[in-house]
Amino acid sequence: xxxRRSLIALAAIAxxxxxxxxxxxxxxxxxxxxxxxxxxxxxxxxxxxxKAAEARGEIEYKASENVxxxxxxxxxxxxxxxxxxxxxxxxxxxxxxARKVAKDFPKTSFLLGxxxxxxxxNFSVFDNYIQEPAYLxxxxxGGMTKTNKIGMVGGFPIPEVNRLMNAFMAGAxxxxxxxxxxxxxxxxxxDPPKAKEASFAMIDKGADVMYAERFGVSDAAKEKGKLAIxxxxxxxxxxxxxxxSSALWNMEPTIDRALKLVKEGKFTAxxxxxxxxxxxxxxxxxxxxxxxxxxxxDIVAKVKAKEKAILDGKFTVKVDDNAPKSSK
Length: 328
Description:
alpha/beta, Rossmann fold, 2 domains, 5-stranded parallel beta sheet, 11 strands, about 45% helix
């Protein structure tokens, strides 16, 4: 009997020390709240990074999409009450509510897209500081336009959008000082038909390169035989003859850092903005792909030199959060 008990005890110890079980026990419970569909550019990058962590077996992941601003606080509280250790989302339109929930759950870690500051002990913020590849994509746009007219369609004129548009415009001006811009905002994060309509109006007035900050712009460019520059995600596979290049946002450096700190019990309130920059591989210029041979060689050389200068710390892309304006 004693031998049997000893064997059972040894088996229990072996099970507890098994790496598989330890990994299962170490899984972090993560919840995400999104006000738009998973497919929307910005949210898709956060969702992708969290799904990758889930696939690696690091986290248990739950997410809600299309949550209205009015419902955001309720969903956030439900996830916090449900024992999730990390809650991710975007607080831009619900700053007060999100911060209130974080205050009520001091032992839960919060990582939210925000224009505001982090708040101790548990409210961290991030943002898409991808102005560096946006500048590089602007350099390409300046070199590709034949009419010297570029159309730009954005969601809302908020800092997160403005800084990318301004960086793009500065890059285009570097390779083509004659370029003019038409800027428009559709006042929505996800309304492809409206973005398409705004794009058609710009193309009708001579724009031959479109800055696709929103879904719908590349569709308009494709229909009219014009070019587009993407933002946040790479859609060249869907638009091989239209999307020249894109400024990509990689959320993995931000998400992976937060998960590591939660796991170690060291998560604090901090600004994760820098982890979206090229230095940390948080952003990059998409491969030129189908346009590799179509972009003038001198432009490609200038872009590569500028990219190196950014990575070497010899060139800093200005962060300009002011609303961009049309040239005329």
